[in-house]
Design a protein that fits this description.
mainly alpha, MetI-like fold
């Protein structure tokens, strides 16, 4: 297992260099990303001042020297400085990323409990009312635009329900914290919005995989031995059926860690996705590139965790150094 983890970590090295080099090239050569011009706005920069700033920022050095400095700063946690506020990008992301992480964890818990649970019920009770209900509801959820679902939940739980109950019960529809509500209450609506489509896909994948596994010879043999349906489900079917589901949930969690731009924007959630979206509109590219770099590391870690989990779900899987 340790050998496999080591190999996976080594595979991250070319990915890291490839992505960081692409970001470096875009940041320095993309039209409109000139750091000097971004500081001066639309005004013309005098040649003398441009020459001084290029020397100060190291922009007059060869490309490989600039890239080496960029990597050195990156490895020391220096992601640059915001063009709009002058604050370090690492400080800005350290303030916003915990909000994205908190929302992503909440959404992935909803996805696991509701999605996997609904898929199991649908497969176990095939062609029953619950199977039809899960299939129909997941089809509707997949078709719903995320921003529309978020606005609908805001209207129902934050406006209509408040008026219907005379203000006795409703949920906050914006922000992450307030004096009236705790942080968990603020997380409910954006978390459900973020998890809705993914939960539907997880349920459909869980159902199809469990039905496929239940048709395998070893499952029929287990039933022939007299094992109960519950024993067959949890001891023989569930783990094997979970591998594609874990793959999907892991990739989805990595995408959530990248910042749910639509969800965070609709609910004014101060996460990294909302911060990057605002930085794009303001052409504050150091925040954009710093955010993408942090997201890269998060996705790589999640992918490693997903790969390692395969060995615990299916004992037939063996990694390097194990017996065949």
């Amino acid at each position: 297992m340790l050998e496999y983890i080591g190999k996976r970590l080594l595979q991250f090295i070319p990915v890291f260099f490839g992505v960081t080099f692409a970001l470096f090239v875009i940041a320095n050569y993309m039209p409109g990303a000139d750091p000097i011009q971004m500081r001066y706005g639309e005004r013309a920069v005098p040649p003398q001042i441009r020459a001084q700033l290029e020397e100060q920022l190291g922009l007059n050095q060869p490309v490989w020297v600039q890239y080496g400095k960029y990597l050195n700063d990156l490895l020391h946690g220096d992601l640059g400085v915001s063009n709009q506020t002058g604050r370090p990008v690492s400080t800005i992301l350290a303030e916003t990323y915990p909000y994205t992480l908190r929302l992503a964890v909440f959404a992935i818990i909803v996805e696991i409990i509701v999605g996997v649970g609904a898929g199991i019920i649908s497969a176990v009770k095939q062609y029953s009312f619950w199977d039809v209900f899960v299939t129909l509801s997941t089809s509707i959820a997949v078709a719903l635009p995320v921003f529309w679902l978020g606005i609908l939940l805001q209207w129902f739980f934050g406006i209509w329900l408040k008026e219907a109950t005379g203000g006795a019960f409703y949920l906050p529809i914006s922000g992450a914290e307030s004096a009236q509500f705790g942080p968990f209450a603020h997380m409910i609506l954006p978390g459900i919005t973020l998890a809705a489509v993914s939960t539907a896909y997880a349920a459909r994948i869980m159902r199809s995989q469990l039905l496929e596994v239940n048709g395998q010879d070893y499952v029929r043999t287990a039933r022939a031995k007299g094992l109960s349906g519950r024993q067959v489900l949890w001891k023989h079917s569930f783990k094997n059926a979970m591998i594609p589901v874990v793959t999907f949930i892991g990739l989805d969690f990595g995408a959530m860690l990248a910042g749910a731009v639509l969800t965070e924007t609709v609910f004014n959630w101060p996460g990294v996705g909302f911060t990057i979206a605002r930085a794009i509109l303001q052409r504050d590219f150091p925040i954009v590139f710093g955010g993408v770099t942090v997201i890269l590391f998060g996705v790589m870690i999640v992918n490693l965790a997903v790969d390692v989990s395969y060995a615990f779900l299916d004992p037939r899987i063996r990694f390097g150094g194990s017996e065949e």
